[in-house]
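Entry for flavin-adenine dinucleotide complex. Fields follow.
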Amino acid sequence: MVKKGEMLYVSTTDAGLAKKAECGGAVSGLLKFALESKAVDAVLAVKKGVDLYEAIPTLISDPKDIDNTAGSLHCGTVLMSKLVANYAPYMKGKKLGVVVKGCDMMGFLELAKRNKVNLDNVFMIGVNCGGSVSPVLARKMIREKFGVDPDTVVKEEIDKGQFIIKMADGSHKGISIDELEESGYGRRSNCRRCKVKVPRQADIACGNWGVIGDKAGKVTFVEVCSDKGADLVTKAAAAKKIAVEPANPKGIEIRAKVEASMYKLADKWRKRDFAELSPVLWETIKTETARCTKCYACIDKCPVCFPVEDKFKNGGTTMVRPGTLPVDPMFHLRRFAHISDSCINCGQCEECCPMEIPLALFSHAIRTEEDAFFEPKLGKAAYTN
Ligand SMILES: Cc1cc2nc3c(=O)[nH]c(=O)nc-3n(C[C@H](O)[C@H](O)[C@H](O)COP(=O)(O)OP(=O)(O)OC[C@H]3O[C@@H](n4cnc5c(N)ncnc54)[C@H](O)[C@@H]3O)c2cc1C
């Protein structure tokens, strides 16, 4: 019987699924079993869209459709939690399995605090996340840094600190993420600053870090984070849907070291990004937000922002008068004051802003500063979000 806290190597026993999966197919195998055994009524995952730079959220109730979602889309920047919040009123007590990166998981926790989702009805299968790459920038990066037509790429992956692309003829090319990021490409800036690499508040956390030796690429490293997670893994193993063995102790050690080095890297990026704002943050915000067109995408996508719709968009307030541009600077300042204490640094506001205003940077900087105020011992850059 599997227990909370255990570290495991897990693989699906479904050969077809194993071929499509990113590592050992633990995530897809467990989701399929959860549907088959009626532990959940539906699963929310992502599948490839028109190309591998597009990740489309998909709601699944037929277990065989899970096969279409296997594999990692590193250019998939969708946030699952806000989607679920929008549809939660229609769930009516039904149970949902959902694949969560660190930001998705934090989004769910923030929604639960606001009574927007009932976590008893959500099964969170976490995937470790070193960061995702914006789809538009990924295409540009592949063309300009790799010298390859992005449409000829059949698979991308992130492995051993490299972004690797594979072409239809079987050739592949990798460039170190550090090098890409030094030249303005690579992971989204919020992901670089993120310190939730292993989503331990999900029910299980799955990844490839710590899988070593002949198991590399063949199994998924699973950290069991809740009793609910332990129960699902136990039952799926008993039904022979997954194969489970204890993780290699050396692998556990390596995984911890990689995670620690990712925290250091995130601190480096925080220092660098936040230094550019200091000491004129409010002036910078005013200048940058002046080009806002009031499309409200930042509000629609934010997992912690739920303004009163009518007052905000239709009738308007003194700060948000419909049809008036440029936007009153107080609109954004007030929004930051409202959300920044719970900002999860998911980057959706910035990702979806058509005017490329660095909204996530501002919000994350304010959050980090506030945390340092309440927890001075942690220091400015040490918040774990
Ligand atoms: C952007 C990203 C970065 C990652 N970085 C790391 C890392 O640095 N270290 C590490 O150990 N592991 C990382 N992973 C996790 C790893 O790639 C595998 O997802 C994990 O090991 C599970 O493997 P599996 O074979 O069990 O998954 P599979 O059975 O192949 O299932 C993968 C699941 O992930 C979902 N998924 C794919 N792309 C996304 C996305 N963009 N957003 C949300 N869900 C998605 C799919 O819908 C599917 O359900 C990352 C994953 C992603 C998506």
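NOTE: Residues 21-28, 45-46, 55, 69-74, 76, 99, 101, 127-130, 132, 158, 206-209, 220 surround flavin-adenine dinucleotide (CB under 6 Å).
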